[in-house]
Amino acid sequence: MRIEDGVSGSRKHLVFAYYVSGHGFGHATRVVEVVRHLIVAGHDVHVVTGAPDFVFTTEIQSPRLFLRKVLVLDCGAVQADALTVDPVASLEKYSETVVARASILATEVEWLNSIKADLVITDVVAVACRAAADAGIRSVCVGNFSWDFIYSEYVATAGYHHKSIISQIAEDYSHCELLIRLPGYSPMPAFRDVIDVPLVVRRLHKSRKEVRSEMGISEDVKLVILNFGGQPAGWKLKEEYLPPGWLCLVCGAFEHELPPNFIKLPKDAYTPDVMAASDCMIGKIGYGTVSEALAYKLPVVYIRRDNFNEEPFLRNMLEYYRGGVEMIKRDLFEGHWRPYLERATSLKPNYDGGVNGGQVAARILQDAADGKNYASDKLSGAQRLRDGYQLQRVHEGDTNIPEWYVRAEFELGLRTGSHSVDNNGSSLCESC
């Protein structure tokens, strides 16, 4: 299936409802790029999100963008600290949404009908797929992971009595007509029909030279970004953490006074420009960080996180393209940064795939809303799951964890979608 380059205007004005996971900023920042292309094509986009307005309005100033703040649809993963997910708390939090499920569905169906949505898009809010089906509206998912996969490990290790959550989430996703799958993906077997697209990254506004000039930083200064939200209380950055002559740009909330070689960035600083002006980054692995680091060839010094099930697939992609150096937690907090920074700046990230995934995805979404059929079957959600994607016991008497999740750690998820995109940005449809 060929997808033409660009997002030319549809023959009619379309209305999109775009549900965004509230877990972290990565979902919102990639949604921005897809939404921007839809709006440029002349359509209205209603974004349902818990992210701050500036994430969207910094990049998009248009009366066709509508922001609706809703926090209860997707609780994501509950973190015990900046580097650790609490599996039990995450499952219990999601169970709260299950209790309110009927009310949530009724509210969303009424809202979708009130805005006359032509298509529901979700990244990666499962209940939005079911709400769309109940409202008689097609839905498409855009993402690199799904919550049934993330929660499957939590159920296996900490909450077997919550195993029905996995079945419910997978069933919700199965109502979705199509998955637009992003690079660095984890297994997502609830989706039958898949199109791989290139990296979805935000565009640059300024050059490296412009950013450094505005900040008063010369080209010969080594610059590292510290992008590490949720840091421990009382952790203080020290001047000796950096090699001589280096500067560090700090994202996030550090309440204490910074040393002279650390510079606090404004809350609404445009991260892609700052990344492109830097020499490396220290932070946690998420889709937004990895995709934009690869796109702008910025080496990443990363710290592993416990129970973040999407991370191995993104880490594998980062390392495959020679873009990552792992730092142990103790060295991060004790300030032994120098060997990692020196190693990172010796790397030559070699990602050469497409970075126009936002444009390609927007064209697919426009065509789907305009009536194009990407689905290979007309089966219901329950039938789809039974047809080769059914939940099954790993061992007799064990919890209901699908066998395909147990095998997931051996899958690399390396594909970037660029193999199915020609020089003109056209994409080919592939199945799982």
Automatic annotation (TrEMBL):
Its EC number is 2.7.1.46. One of its GO terms (molecular function) is L-arabinokinase activity. InterPro entries: GHMP_kinase_L-arabinokinase. It is an enzyme of class 2 (transferase). Keywords: Transferase. Signal peptide: none annotated. SUPFAM superfamilies: UDP-Glycosyltransferase/glycogen phosphorylase (SSF53756). It comes from the Eukaryota. PANTHER family: GALACTOKINASE, SLR1395 PROTEIN. This is L-arabinokinase. The lineage of its organism: Eukaryota, Viridiplantae, Streptophyta, Embryophyta, Tracheophyta.
